[in-house]
UniProtKB/TrEMBL annotation:
Recorded family membership: Belongs to the beta-eliminating lyase family.
InterPro entries on file: ArAA_b-elim_lyase/Thr_aldolase, Beta-eliminating_lyase, PyrdxlP-dep_Trfase, PyrdxlP-dep_Trfase_major, PyrdxlP-dep_Trfase_small
Keyword Lyase: yes
GO molecular function: carbon-carbon lyase activity
Modified residues (N6-(pyridoxal phosphate)lysine): K257
Aromatic amino acid beta-eliminating lyase/threonine aldolase domain: residues covered: 46-421
Keywords, in A-Z order: Lyase, Pyridoxal phosphate
One Pfam family here: Beta_elim_lyase
Biological processes per GO annotation: aromatic amino acid metabolic process
Listed name of the protein: Tyrosine phenol-lyase
Cofactor: pyridoxal 5'-phosphate
Organism: Candidatus Niyogibacteria bacterium RIFCSPLOWO2_01_FULL_45_48
Family matches, as PANTHER family: BETA-ELIMINATING LYASE-LIKE PROTEIN-RELATED, TRYPTOPHANASE
Length: 457
């Protein structure tokens, strides 16, 4: 092995079951071939998401006992506020129950009808909240992000030239904010470089447009900067993370990822106006501004998670390298994956894996269902189903990328589990020609991927 074992050991375990092949076939059929609709008890290894699926530390569990459940001014809120300030560097913090709630408040505070939001690449809920405000979303990611086989270090980067042209064309008043997502999820968990963040901020500042980062996976992005960007090799990840924040006016965070908790989120900013606005809104939509939809104990676990993730570089280094190792097993066996491997997940290129299926038969959705049938491993579609439809024209957004995400929860699975998953997927790859596509039989109006149903064609 070319990297160290995890910097933690296992203190408590949870039983999992492996259903028989016929059991899996009926479970996935009943779920309408949508892995979101599977029951957790029918899943052996759950790689659906890294969101809220982390194992907390003994220190975080101990923190749960110290919940101050006062309605207002809970001690745990001040601990959270201090942790965010120390680690991310923002003085103003608004807690929310999870990431999309922070996005909701940010969209309400910043977006007027007809205004644009420029992003490296959308995330489903981030775009939804902007569109609900009558805003128009524009992706400005570098072109190589759309090529799964192109091995570049920072495929999450903004295309600065295109962004500049768009600002010129639209005019600054037509742009609500620039949203940069660290370790861009929909692009395959691909990082943004420090240089790109700096260039983006310079451009935005010239036109007085605020830059808001989706910092949900900014820690993992910071690790990639250390590993790949010249000049940062010797800097602790903690410092890199804080430096990234200098190039933003604020952040929205789903704490269910980097921050190592099962629920929670926040937004943070150094801009007083954004703070005042969102602090007023949080009371309407989430709860008082000193709990924002979280219990005191949840805030304590979160405050501790934020500090723990940057205590030293060992945790994040192991985390990212474990995902890379898993991707390596698949790549070596010839399975088409997105390269380089992202920070939180390995993405299968379903267009290549199931090259005999047209996109109208949902190759990524099909592959995700077939992986479950093969080895009881749960994954997620990230392709044309997730891309959804334009709210006005109802036309499909379409998606150049047709991916299946195998997302690795933090501190939950050993390499044995991931090895088993890789073996199942390699076996499936060998008989890929036998896999039939899907037809959609039920389509929800918004965020359709969560609840859509399918049948085999
Ligand atoms: N931003 C990013 C980049 C995300 O990945 C997510 C959630 C959110 C915002 C929303 O946060 O779930 O706490 O409300 N991503 C999960 C995933 C659902 O599986 O990738 P939330």
């Amino acid at each position: 092995m070319d990297y160290l074992p995890p910097p933690w050991k296992i203190k408590m375990v949870e039983k999992v079951n492996l259903l028989s092949r016929s059991g899996r076939e009926s479970a996935v059929k009943e779920a309408g071939f949508n892995t979101f609709l599977l029951k957790s008890r029918d899943v052996f290894i759950d790689l659906l998401t890294d969101s809220g699926t982390s194992a907390m530390s003994d220190n975080q569990w101990a923190g749960l006992m110290l919940g101050d459940e006062a309605y207002a001014g809970s001690e745990n809120f001040y601990n959270l506020e201090k942790a965010v300030k120390d680690v991310y560097g923002f003085s103003f913090v608004v807690p929310t129950h999870q990431g999309r709630a922070a996005e909701h408040l940010m969209a309400r505070a910043l977006v007027q009808k007809g205004q644009h939001v420029l992003s490296n690449m959308y995330f489903t809920t981030s775009r939804e909240h902007v569109e609900r405000r009558g805003g128009i979303w524009q992706d400005c990611i570098v072109p190589e992000a759309h090529d799964p086989q192109k091995d570049k270090p920072f495929k999450g980067n903004f295309d600065i030239a295109r962004t500049g042209r768009l600002i010129k064309k639209l005019g600054k008043n037509k742009i609500a904010f620039i949203r940069v997502e660290a370790n861009c999820n929909m692009a395959g968990g691909q990082p943004v470089s420090m240089k790109n963040l700096e260039d983006l901020k310079t451009l935005a500042e010239r036109h007085e447009i605020p830059v808001i980062m989706d910092a949900t996976r900014a820690l993992e992005n910071a690790y990639f900067i250390k590993a790949r960007e010249k000049g940062w090799e010797k800097t602790p990840v903690k410092k890199i993370l804080k430096n990234m924040m200098r190039f933003t006016d604020g952040i929205t965070v789903s704490s269910k990822k980097d921050n190592l908790v099962n629920i929670g989120g926040f937004l943070a900013t150094r801009n007083k106006k954004i703070f005042e606005e969102t602090k007023t809104l949080v009371v309407v939509y989430e709860g008082l501004h000193t709990y924002g939809g979280m219990s005191g104990r949840d805030m304590e676990a979160l405050a501790r998670g934020i500090r723990e993730m940057v205590e030293n570089d060992d945790y994040v280094e192991h985390r990212v390298k474990q995902v890379e190792w898993f991707g390596g097993l698949l790549k070596e066996a010839g399975v088409p994956i997105v390269v380089p491997v992202g920070g939180h997940a390995v993405y299968l290129d379903a267009k290549k894996f199931l090259s005999h299926l047209p996109q109208s038969q949902y190759p990524a959705q099909t592959l995700s269902a077939s992986i479950y049938e093969e080895c009881a491993v749960r994954s997620m579609e990230r392709g044309i189903v997730s891309a959804g439809r334009d709210p006005k024209t109802r036309k499909e957004h379409g998606s150049k990328l047709e991916l299946v995400r195998l997302t690795v929860p933090r501190r939950v699975y050993t390499n044995d589990h991931l090895g088993f998953a890789a073996e199942g997927i390699v076996n499936l790859f060998k008989k890929r020609q036998t896999i039939r596509g899907l037809k959609m039989t039920y389509e929800p109006k918004q965020l359709r991927f969560f609840q859509a149903k399918f049948r085999r064609v």
